[in-house]
Amino acid sequence: MIASPYLLYLGHSNDEVGIKTSRGLAVFRPDDCVGEFRHDDCGLTLDLPRMGFAEAVAVGARTLVLGIANAGGRMSADLVGDAIAAIEAGLDVASGLHHRLREEPAIVAAAARHGRKLHDVRDPRPGIPVGNGKRRAGKRLLTVGTDCSVGKMYATLCLERGMRARGMAADFRATGQTGILIAGSGVPLDAVIADFISGAIEDISPARTDDGWDLIEGQGSLFHPSFAGVSTGLLHGAQPAALVLCHDPMRAHMRGLPHYPVPGLRETLEANLAVARLTSPEVRAVGVALNTSKLARAEAERLCAETADALGLPCTDPFAMGVDSIIDRIDQCFEASPRVATLSL
Amino acid sequence: MIASPYLLYLGHSNDEVGIKTSRGLAVFRPDDCVGEFRHDDCGLTLDLPRMGFAEAVAVGARTLVLGIANAGGRMSADLVGDAIAAIEAGLDVASGLHHRLREEPAIVAAAARHGRKLHDVRDPRPGIPVGNGKRRAGKRLLTVGTDCSVGKMYATLCLERGMRARGMAADFRATGQTGILIAGSGVPLDAVIADFISGAIEDISPARTDDGWDLIEGQGSLFHPSFAGVSTGLLHGAQPAALVLCHDPMRAHMRGLPHYPVPGLRETLEANLAVARLTSPEVRAVGVALNTSKLARAEAERLCAETADALGLPCTDPFAMGVDSIIDRIDQCFEASPRVATLSL
């Protein structure tokens, strides 16, 4: 367990995509984030108090989260120095980088010297089983996408928040490093050995009998030639009762692959439903989530309405407009979950 | 490079499936296999001369191949002892087990002491790239299956042999431990990190400009809930011009999953073509390979004829009946490859 609250590391970053893990924590776990650490040349902020390591410890911080992605996923000498300084000030360190903290002898030595914990979030737990495809109890919703990085984690977390606001039992199941840091557990699916993709998902979302929902963060896309294997195993392991399709209308081509066009929404939905049916024959689509952060509000609303009409599904920007329409559809499609919070009158 | 010729290990095995790697080598690389090592309680044989380690060295053996699968994939104390005795007699050791030779200190020490090499075939090479899906030159054929272990490796190797017999340039590309030991190279796809499945295949079957064929060994099945992610990434990485569908007509249910029926041949073919089209839009099916080893010959021939009629594709048992009909279809579908061997008259 990673001890909170956190100090979020921005370092020298000037690339918005590079700090998406720190930002994810600031947005979805604001109560666990006491401040941000950045150097003078860092042009970005999470609108948290800027503080040094000793200062953060003084206000209660327990862990420095290296919520950034460097080019190549490696830790620079500079980053290693900051991590050691944080350890010496009394902080644990958590990282989602490919370059593991435990592979950096100076960091390991400093942690040993000061009795601090290191958390490499991208290490899958040992002993993940092979998937068995057995039907298991419980209602699971999986977000799927036309492409990578189209808002699947945001949509899933917004659904968790929205369902809980209605008193429904609902739990986010993380499959990526940012999600794991936000949730405190999960599986870094991109780091699992190929034979265990579906088994890893069966493992983090086991049978559930309280009639609540597991909301599983999607990864990749069936139409992304680099990562469709991950998406396929995730669909099979999830055994979803419900799918939410995520899409970024500003995406010009598949992420990182200018020679591949983004597939159509209907085509994406049909392909995902077909693959999911192998382990979950009754699976159905319950909504579409658009990332409209780069559009004017009126344009975004027009696009959602058009998409909803075209696909016959509720369509929203979960972060900007909420998820009520999708939860309404879930309530229509599935026996309404008992509300876990009751009012005493 | 694993030094040949080989001594094939059977040990105490009495399970035919457990010795499939040793048998694969005996069948497809007979010239590289000088003998078999088995204890008195081993009820199986590859019909090779039985010999001890010193005797094998005396007739020229260079490497002991641990071509067996133990329950749990671990090396027993007994197996470790045999490996050390082989090293002391002057043999290198190669293994495809999950339990690595290099994880067994006594074996590592013995190899160091005697200057012998250890080969863990199930280790992917470091630095496998993420797949990029870029169209690359060359003709590639991939075997796909209704299930795991239905004869994909045998069919692929028989196609290599058959094409070479006609003077075509054709090379087997291995994706499993047995295939890697037979070919001397390849990628153990089941041991690759999930994000790199398609990249691993792009890596072992790069652009080819001699107008010959890469024949890529398939893995798993799109309809196997445990392993369909591997099969999906393999289809995308392979960019196959041609698919051969492999099937075991005696299979009662999906391997290891009694709750999953085996899919139909037509359904399997259509699903594989649809997935393959993402990176290879012109892909086509060129044949069906049935494993009829448990059927009488007349029954096997009847089944092949019926299957060919139903699917409009040549159908054969590659090992028992040859692959001429499939190569004829390939020659009809694709510009005939120039023959690399010419007769001097």
TrEMBL record, chains A, B:
Residues 46-124 form the D-glutamate N-acetyltransferase-like N-terminal domain. It holds the Pfam family DUF1611_N. InterPro entries: DgcN-like (IPR011669), DgcN-like_C (IPR035086), DgcN-like_N (IPR035402), P-loop_NTPase (IPR027417). Residues 130-326 form the D-glutamate N-acetyltransferase-like C-terminal domain. PANTHER family: DUF1611 DOMAIN-CONTAINING PROTEIN, GLL3100 PROTEIN. This is Putative NAD-dependent epimerase/dehydratase family protein. It comes from Sphingomonas leidyi. The lineage of its organism: Bacteria, Pseudomonadati, Pseudomonadota, Alphaproteobacteria, Sphingomonadales.
